[in-house]
Amino acid sequence: MNSFSIGLTALRAHQQSLEILGNNVANASTPGYHRQRPELVNDVGVRVARITRMKNDSVETALLRNNSLSGYSQQSLDVATQIESILTPSETSIHANISEFFNRLEKVANAPQDMSVRAEMLSSAQELTNGFAHLDQALLELDGDTHAALEDGLAEVNRLITHIADINQQIFIARGQQKEPNDLVDQRDRLMGELAQWMEVDLATNESGKEYVIAGGGTSIIGQNGAGFQLTENSDGDLAVTQSAMHLEVPMNSGKLKALLEATNRTIPDARDRLNSFAQQVVQAVDEQHAKGLPDSGPFVSLLGTRSVGDVNAPLLYAETAF
């Protein structure tokens, strides 16, 4: 090769290097883009041997894990905020209803003969009952919204898995043609970051050098194709995410899906149970006081009610009443 040809190869190599540097500058603010560096070799003239994609595997792994933890924390906070909004005290909240009810009870205790005072107490009791029912309905609707969010989240997860599998196929083809699919790898990493918001994601390489995306604690390996996930009910009666192909329950250690599953299986049902328990305690306390009261005519001869007793023939004291 003469000196003119050698000089020409050098110009071409440096022109390609400038194009790569210009691409770096143009994509400096592009999400998921990694800086690329031309590797020049002197082999009977100068040429670009390969284009290296600049990345740190440890940093990339840490970012994926932080994405999953961030998704879990943000989704958990969102559910907690909605529950807090439902329970926030206001002039028409359950807190006001309880306060008004006990104020009316105190007025009845001070003026039991006043029928208007009695009517006001009964009205406040009805408002309190409606308040408990309204809170429970609000929590039930939140549970329904959470279930819908789970379904939507799984649809998004399956869409991302399909897209990642498609890009993986393009990457394998490009590498088989001795090309550097750096832009495709950037796209895959960006999609992995989005998927990590929903569940745990990692990248592994097999013995032949092919890269695979591992999702759902290893239950789904995304190569040139990937099995999606579905929402099912497990043996405990809880909602769970399973791998569609093998019907394996997916361990959720982080991500939005974990937070949504915790909300619908634990957080919201526990809130409803605590509300119901509190309502029962109020009923119990009122019943106990009510049972000690006497009408104007003297002791009761008979009592009618909608809640059954253990033995209708036994004295009331031993009839196994709820109070």
Structure, described:
The chain is mainly α and 323 residues long. It contains 6 helices and 7 strands. The protein has helices at residues 3-26, 57-87, 94-110, 115-176, 182-196, 256-291; strands spanning 36-42, 46-53, 201-205, 211-215, 220-222, 229-233, 239-243. The protein has a 3-stranded antiparallel beta sheet. The protein has a two-stranded antiparallel sheet with strand order 1-2. It has a two-stranded antiparallel ribbon with strand order 6-7. A hairpin with a 4-residue loop joins strand 4 (211-215) and strand 5. The chain is elongated and about 125 Å long.
Kindly report the spatial arrangement of strands forming the biggest sheet.
3-4-5
Sketch the major β-sheet: 3 strands, antiparallel
> From the structure provided, what is the oligomeric state, counting identical versus distinct chains?
single chain
Low-confidence regions: none
In angstroms, what separates the terminal alpha carbons?
Answer: 105 Å
Helical content stands at 55-70%
